[in-house]
Amino acid sequence: xxxxxxxxPVHPADSGxxxxxxxxxxxxxxxAFVALLLLLTGPTDAQAASxxxxxxxxxxxxxxxxxxxxxx
Length: 72
What we know:
The chain is mainly alpha-helical. 58% of the residues lie in helices and 0% in strands. The protein has helices at residues 23-41, 44-50, 55-70. It is elongated, with a radius of gyration of 27 Å. 0% of the residues are buried.
């Protein structure tokens, strides 16, 4: 005599967790990575030799001035 086995339901019980991500959950980190990569590999090397200031040095200078203004 064989025992009856219970079969699993096709769809498991809803646990309230949704595994699908919205489109921006992947797009924003990729965009941030590309922006940082462009800042690092941008034309700042050519401007550094000629004395120009690139976006990275401008940002650092702005942060330095902001810090000096906030904390005298």
